[in-house]
Amino acid sequence: MKRRAKNFIFNARHLIEEGIYDLAAFNAEQAAQLYLKATLLELIGDYPRTHSLITLLSELRRVNEGLVTGFVRENRLKLHALEDAYLTSRYFLKEFDEDDAKKLLEISEEVIKLCEELRHKLGES
Known about the structure:
The protein has one domain (2-124): Nucleotidyltransferases  domain 2 (Four Helix Bundle (Hemerythrin (Met), subunit A)), CATH 1.20.120.330. Helices cover 82% and strands 0% of the residues. It contains 5 helices and no strands. The longest helix has 27 residues, at 65-91.
């Protein structure tokens, strides 16, 4: 799942370069969603069957409440925008511009960094 998530990140970057911003947004969201699910599977043993990044992050609070709560609090609007990108790019005809796609890719990469930090911290204890 992590490999696939990283492939979605690669695709999002490539699609931004090609000017295909709606699919870049979708790929950015898919990367974050898959990486969260892979991290939950690894650290907790299961993950909720949902597409909601906020719900998946809520489950990660079981690993490190302070770090995850702070991340969600600081990035709530960006996370909601990334969740919306999944729905709007898949089911509706929403236009994304280059700046939109880059910001969504950035928050997706931040989610992945958070997951890596949690894995690292858990490995230290």
